[in-house]
Amino acid sequence: MPARDLALLTEAAREAGRIALRYWRKDPKVWDKGGEHGPVSEADLAVNEMLKAKLLGARPEYGWLSEETPDSSERLSVDTVFIVDPIDGTRAFVAGEETWAHSLAVAQTGKVTAGVVYLPAIDRIYTASLTSPAMKDGEPIAVSARDRLEGANILTTKANMAPEKWPGGVPEIIRSFRASLAYRMCLAAEGRFDGMLTLRDAWEWDIAAGSLIAERAGAVVTDQTGAALTFNTAGAQAQGVLALPPGPHAEALARLRG
Question: N or C: which end of the chain has fewer CB within 10 A?
Answer without folding.
Answer: C
